[in-house]
Amino acid sequence: MSDLIKQNTPGNSEGFPAGVPPSYNWYQGWNDGGLWSPPADFTAVEGWGQVYPKVGSPPYSNPDAAVEVANAKTYVRFKHTGEWTLVQDQSRTQLTGGHFVPDFVGNVAIPMKATPVAGTTIAFGAPPAGYNNHFWYKARGTYPAGAVDAVYVQMEMRVTDPNLHLVAMVGADWWRDARAPYLDDHSNNPGIGGSNWIELSTQWKTIGFYSMSADGFRASPAPPLRGLVKEILPAPPSTPTRSGEILIQGKSAAPGARSSRWKNSADNDKDRSSPSADGGQQLIGAGSRPIPADSTATAQAFSNDCLLAFALTLGTLAKVRRNNPPCRQRTSRNAAT
Predict the structure, then answer these.
(1) pTM, two decimal places
(2) Number of domains the chain contains
(3) N or C: which end of the chain has fewer CB atoms below 10 A?
(4) Is-cis flag, bond preceding 292, omega within 30?
(5) What is the pLDDT of residues 126-184, one digit of tens each?
(6) Which backbone phi and psi does 6 adopt, to 5 degrees?
(7) Residue 2: CB partners within 8 Å, gap ≥ 6?
């Protein structure tokens, strides 16, 4: 418990992420700039992890080096009972992701090698120069609207090469529902937050994030820190129609869904829709998150029926946004305070 509290207390990062502007509020690690409880009408959550070279570490490259991730779990807490419920479990829903540019400007990314190893553990290729490792579950966890007030995410990580100097963070985003698309204004997926940066080694390290006060977490600890937990996994959602798919290790994986609102500064949010100058890193909109287009990514053409349905959906969303303005204006949580 003490290690987990330390991972969620300001000033306890074991290093900092190379390539991330220090003005980003998450550069230092944990901060209280996220939305700890979900909006009343939201029904989904997405746990995630990210790994960066450590600031000040010497350049090092090993094409065979990997970051292994195991036992990833996401829980939500029901506010009326204080009971934690498991909604994402790596043993049932595997992780996917990509190598993104460190500051996430434009959501530019390249495919990331993913290799299943013992049990449900997955090994991601180490971050190449100029990129990070960013990963999330292939399906979001769900809960009843208005029922939960906190989330807990936990993952175990290690590196396969002792010469790698990497730091890792885990966190989560709320989502409007299990199939809501990614929108540039992040209205469908406000960021919750992330842990401090933990330096990885060849020994397994458990990294966790909780969206509540330290006193509240001590009084109502999340699994696996206590044995009293109700684990009810929702049925996997049907695969949504999408315009592209990432090929990882010869297998297709549904595009993931991450919010960058908590992650980027307000100025960088403006650049999100800018096309990449490098054609090999151009983004294709697919599912709920843009994905990189290159030799390992394929784009599937929409049928006329799909195009019509997509246009009607966009029209409906536009009407909803015009007719139902937000009840309050949220200030940016991305710039450093």
Answers:
(1) 0.71
(2) 1
(3) C
(4) no
(5) 999 999 999 999 999 999 999 999 999 999 999 999 999 999 999 999 999 999 999 98
(6) -65, -40
(7) none
